[in-house]
Design brief:
heterodimer, A: 271 residues, mainly alpha, B: 299 residues, alpha/beta, Rossmann fold, 4-stranded antiparallel β-sheet, 11 helices
């Protein structure tokens, strides 16, 4: 198993894919965090002057800025995890992989573990940029950057955990949908289109909101404890999940897709 | 003394839906010789090899290495070296990293990676990305992967495809050398002429069934002999009297028999020969006849 883990780590680090994705993610979440921090700074005074406008308590602002990593960036570890499998299918490298390690379950298990680590690394890179850009902008616009508070660092830890889980979910999705184009379209369509609509739709009634909070994106926001979406959407009266419940939902999704993928596509003939 | 491991196919069949890709395949590949696994494209060669390697599950039967299935081998790459299609590479990875990924997975020391790169003549390209490799270089990299574990058995699918003449000569020498060391070597090809000078034994597949297995000489006895005499009519009568099928050609009489037999018949009939020539090109024709016969040839 150690050999399989080392092999999968080398696979991941010996092509340019992972750091290309890191670069794009860093640009995207950095831009989002800077934008949010700047907006709160500029609008904060105007909003405060209008008592009937929606108010965001000042202590909620730094978490919203820092959690941009997961709020908009979770799709990157998800894609990395998916590509870890579908690129092997696309380039027919599952053949040498299974020749070197015929126990296919071990290969999948090693990928799940290694990609969890890679997702955590993505989380760290994301936090460096959201904290590095967000905190100075918050301070400059007269807000509290909250860097001294333990809650901020607990949030950072949960961001890293969420990113790790998203990468693991990606591996599961790849093991289930092995065609690269189909897998990427599914991931993008679900995360960028289907789920946001479902989350909005389910927030209309209480009973749907009770179901909607179990959607993976909502569970991820619950795990992290903050997100630009939960801060503004918040219409439904159903309480969001506890952070650990959100984590368990993500873990459950990862386990479900991986197990189904293993039992179906992963054991198929390699022709 | 190296361990000698045979390849054993026992009544192996594989259906893809309604298509019988391989039907009741039984043969043994012995160590110490190069065995050719021949048949036209689509005959079921690659499917058979993939079943042997645990990549495709047979519908029935078993393909093993001396009785042990690939997935049950304690150190698979050290027992069996495999080169399948020449395209199993991530184009963004260097040749050295490509080999290292699998060496690490199989517990093979990284020093061996440098050795096989040297052995296959691509050491200078080791740190270039595989995406820029020519087909010939990819074939060599595929072979480097096969040799990683210094295996007892080599299973190579179309290894000559895409090699330049110098590469072909090199791989022929390498295969003979590996067999002479007591290894079991199975080489597939869709062209008999491509491996004719390299293989000692052949297993010929057509439409998923074995149509011939044995030594290359066995195949040749089924070939045509071109024979002629100043008195061609007398020769024709003598051969016909011996029960042989004779047909006239511009160059002489074409007879389906071994040349030694034809000579003996002519000698007994007192007909002096002006020509007795086994059709070397006939080997390819026998092969083509075997694989194209509508009933699958002589099973």
């Amino acid at each position: 198993m150690i050999a399989a883990l080392r092999s999968e780590t080398l696979k991941l680090t010996s092509t340019r894919l992972w750091w290309v994705l890191v670069l794009i993610m860093v640009g995207y979440v950095g831009f989002t965090a800077a934008l949010l921090a700047g907006l709160f700074g500029a609008l904060g005074d105007q909003l405060a002057a209008q008592p009937d406008a929606p108010q965001l308590p000042p202590e909620m602002i730094p978490p919203v800025v820092y959690s941009a990593v997961t709020a908009v960036g979770y799709v990157f570890p998800l894609i990395l995890g998916t590509l870890a499998i579908t690129s092997e299918v696309r380039y027919q490298t599952l053949t040498p992989t299974f020749l070197a390690q015929p126990r296919r379950g071990r290969v999948l298990a090693a990928k799940l573990v290694v990609l969890a680590g890679a997702g955590a690394v993505f989380g760290v890179f994301g936090l460096i940029v959201t904290l590095g850009l967000g905190a100075p902008i918050l301070t400059a616009t007269g807000n509290d950057a909250a860097l001294g508070e333990s809650a901020t660092w607990a949030l950072a830890g949960r961001v890293v955990l969420a990113m790790a889980l998203w990468a693991v979910i990606g591996v599961g999705v790849g093991s289930l949908i092995q065609n690269q184009v189909a897998a990427i379209i599914t991931v993008l369509a679900f995360t960028q289109f289907v789920e946001p609509i479902l989350r909005l739709g389910t927030s209309i009634w209480d009973w749907t909101a009770a179901v909607g909070r179990f959607l993976p994106g909502a569970a991820s926001d619950a795990l992290v404890g903050s997100s630009i979406f939960t801060s503004f959407a918040g219409g439904g009266s159903a309480d969001p999940l506890e952070w650990w419940q959100g984590g368990l939902v993500l873990l459950g999704v990862a386990a479900a897709v991986s197990i189904v993928g293993y039992l179906t596509a992963w054991r198929r003939d390699i022709t | 003394m190296r361990t000698r491991t045979t390849i054993e196919f026992r009544n192996v069949s594989k259906d893809f839906g309604a298509v019988h890709a391989v039907s009741d395949l039984s043969f043994t590949v012995e160590p110490g010789v190069v065995t050719g696994f021949l048949g036209p494209n689509g005959a079921g060669k690659t499917t058979s090899l993939r079943m042997l390697l645990g990549l495709v599950r047979p519908t029935s039967g078993s393909a093993t290495f001396g009785g042990t299935a690939y997935r049950d081998l304690p150190r698979p790459l050290a027992t069996v070296g495999t080169a399948l299609e020449a395209s199993s590479f991530s184009p963004g990875r260097t040749a050295r990293n490509h080999l290292s990924v699998y060496a690490v997975a199989a517990g093979i020391p990284r020093t061996r990676v440098a050795e096989v790169l040297e052995l296959t003549g691509i050491a200078e390209a080791a740190d270039r990305r595989v995406g820029g490799f020519s087909l010939g270089m990819r074939q060599r990299l595929g072979l480097a992967f096969a040799l990683l574990g210094d295996p007892e058995v080599l299973v190579l699918d179309e290894p000559i495809n895409g090699l330049d003449p110098e590469g072909i000569r090199w791989i022929r020498g390498l295969l003979r050398h590996l067999a002479a060391e007591g290894r079991t070597v199975l080489v597939s090809s869709h062209l008999l002429s491509e491996v004719q000078q390299t293989v000692d034994r052949v297993v010929i597949l057509s439409r998923g069934r074995i149509v011939h297995q044995g030594s290359l000489d066995d195949l040749e006895t089924a070939a045509t002999v071109l024979v002629d005499a100043p008195d061609r009519d007398a020769l024709r009568s003598a051969l016909r009297a011996a029960g042989l099928a004779v047909s006239d050609t511009d160059a002489g009489l074409a007879v389906s028999a071994a040349s030694a037999d034809v000579g003996a018949i002519a000698h007994r009939a007192g007909v002096p020969l002006s020509l007795l020539q086994p059709e070397r090109a006939g080997l390819e024709e026998v092969f083509l006849e075997l694989v194209s016969a509508p009933d699958g040839g002589r099973a």
